[in-house]
Amino acid sequence: xxxxxxxxxxxxxxxxxxxxxxxxxxxxxxxxxxxxxxxxxxxxxxxxxxxxxxxxxxxxxxxxxxxxxxxxxxxxxxxxxxxxxxxxxxxxxxxxxxxxxxxxxxxxxxxxxxxxxxxxxxxxxxxxxxxxxxxxxxxxxxxxxxxxxxxxxxxxxxxxxxxxxxxxxxxxxxxxxxxxxxxxxxxxxxxxxxxxxxxxxxxxxxxxxxxxxxxxxxxxxxxxxxxxxxxxxxxxxxxxxxxxxxxxxxxxxxxxxxxxxxxxxxxxxxxxxxxxxxxxxxxxxxxxxxxxxxxxxxxxxxxxxxxxxxxxxxxxxxxxxxxxxxxxxxxxxxxxxxxxxxxxxxxxxxxxxxxxxxxxxxxxxxxxxxxxxxxxxxxxxxxxxxxxxxxxxx
Length: 394
Fold this sequence. Notes:
Largest sheet: 8 strands, mixed
Shape: globular
Structural class: alpha+beta
């Protein structure tokens, strides 16, 4: 573990060790907006992108945590947020003591309520500066998110693109890959739409009863298009190839039958070939005069290019009709989800990769409940019958 002190709990999982450098976790304030926006733009392909207005809303709601280096040396006045000021402006410090380094190390955006489920939270972004990665800063942020969750929140989830190394990070923290969906229609590194894996974890220590759950369809988010969510088949790994299911793909496949596919492919090849001008061996285009003057079409002026780009941007901003999935497919996905989760939660199917490398579970204090305290007070104030007096035998 690279010299990091660790210990193993009774369940076999390694408890969260101390990071390489002393860090402290606090709630983000308005001054952290520039750092958050800059770091998310640097890693936009991996964590996505939130508009600046949405980041400001998350900061006001207290949904962003900041990790900062902790120093025991006193800081000079006027060098940024100190401990007392951070407590007044952004809430109490969650981990660590002492003064904070002015440069933050990473952040985490989360919510303790997802898809109107009070018992399910979600992690939107987890981002650590490149120079401080692999130092357990991300794991410490996730631990702080679990500790801040309300009592009724028992599960946390996240969506992660299948082609990212971050999936191994979520797996090491004990998250379970339950389902997948298709990302945007833009082709990724493999020249095809990206696949998003749905990870979920129970956050209570010793919790073996809270049922897992995932949505059968997502209708919002940054994709802005409905997506069918399918369970990961038993016996397959989250990194295995998954099919791309997009709205409208069933109509296209039905319109293009098996008999018409080869004919359409040949027609497309002929169309592309005829669209390209044929050239002879000497590089000249035939059917054009070689002994006279030929003028090419004039190049557009910079003003015309600028106007064309502005028109394209305005066209892209127009609200396009959202494609919806076939209701029959949505109902079938919901039934498949219910049957799959029934077997998972009943123990008939083992959750894929439910054993994590590190333990981030939230441990609740073992204080007596209100009902136990009232029962003890009532027992102490209860007046019993007078003791019976026994007479001596004559």
